[in-house]
Amino acid sequence: MTHHFDMLPKSVGVGYKPQHFSDILADAAPVTWLEIHAENYMGAGGRPLAQLRALSEKFPISVHGVGLSIGSEGRLDPDHLARLKHLNDWLTPASFSEHLAWSTHDMGFYNDLLPLPYTNATLETVCDHIDEVQNTLGRQMLLENPSSYLAFSESTLDEVAFLREVTKRTGCGLLLDVNNVFVSATNLQMDARAYIDTFPLDKVGEIHLGGHDEDTDDHGAPLLIDSHGREIADPVWALYAHTIAACGAKPTLIEWDTDVPAWSVLTDEAHRAADILTPVPA
Amino acid sequence: MTDRVSQTDFIAAAMNPERAAPLGIVGPDGTPAPKRFSVYRNNIIVSLKAAMADGFPAVASLVGDAFFAAMSDVFIRKTPPNSPILTLYGADFADFIASFEPAASLPYLSGVAQLEYALRRAYHAADALPVAARALENPHIFSAQITLAPACTMLSFAHPVAEIRAAALGGPKPTSGAQDVLITRPDLDPIATALPAGTIAITTALQAGIPLGQAIEHAPDELDLTAFIGALVSGGAITKLEYDNV
After folding, report:
1. Class for domain A12-277, per CATH?
2. What is the pTM of this model?
3. Chain A partners of B81 at a C-beta cutoff of 8 Å?
4. Which residues face A173 on adjacent strands?
């Protein structure tokens, strides 16, 4: 690759969907970078890689893994790690990120970001896995905070303390998903602003914004579901503005993964993020 | 209370709706939260069913959404993905359908699934530069060994599966019987070309390194050989010609 996009700009990006390929090449503004899900670009060839090659010549690309299962109790899948390395070496993306979650168990892949308890034991496992990823890829990764729907009675650490310790031990950066913070805070009856205010914001290399659905829990209390299938909710925009005011401009991604709308709907969301982001110095 | 929830327990409960949520999973008040746990149950099965519906649109159209959802539910619980590459999930779906009793009245359905999966595989297959059409104008062409592109495959069916698939996706009604189907990927979109039953013998021979002249001795009588070679060429399926004696 001959481009020089070795980091994400502190402006707005969008999660790439193939149906927007022509729109993006025609006029992407105000979108300045793109994020792909690593697992969709692990075929041997064909259109997905051809599109990615074309896009990577014009835009910084963030590779966002959704299948590495860093929170697994067992070891990381060496085949999958090798595929990630292959993609990373070929594309030399501006950023690589994964989730504080697990999805693979006993050779099965369950296609969701499953939760883990926060204990000293899980902390050690997660750090070992992140060390392995960073050593294999030869680069720093960002770790994303999850959306939580439930808690584990065995947990002994809160999520922010857990993430702070992970960055300290492994040197990884963090991907702060502001919608996930809002969803988790609502679901677990915590204070979203307090989460942001105690978060190690200096380690944040990227911010995610996405839409959520509303449901109710076992007692009729609100239960928000991280669906990425609609506009970003107003309180999430407010929490984002609060975050940016606290940490300065950060690369910010609009995520929309289900019921994908027309490109113009995504650029409307991107404009809204840019309006919050651009007046703020980095 | 310090009930430890292993990932084995979590998955066993998540993939089996009859099981209770594991002890140790709680809401913000510290009490058991089965409805919260069911968010994961739901996310897993719904997202995998969506992946199946995306991957097998003609099968879904032939049986209807409700039947397809029920059938893929059984398939997913029996054969969850064994890799995070969901673009290639469903390799075993055709075999599953062949032995899925409720679909027995549609004997061609398994073939349609097999064809859709083969098209998907061709979509993601490695790129390969085809030879120019004029390369086949060589007077020794029948002595050539032919290398076929990674995206090129042939399948054999007892039913007119290519037409059934096309009809399911809005094309005309099928008329023919047994057939073989050639998959090629000119540029980036795979196409299925129906050919007389038995044509597969030619590509099987070519793939075994048998020269073109001998390979076409296996051609069925009804095959228009010129059209078949033309389909290989226009489909970008021929990537190398080798002449032993030159």
Report:
1. alpha beta
2. 0.95
3. 108-111
4. A142
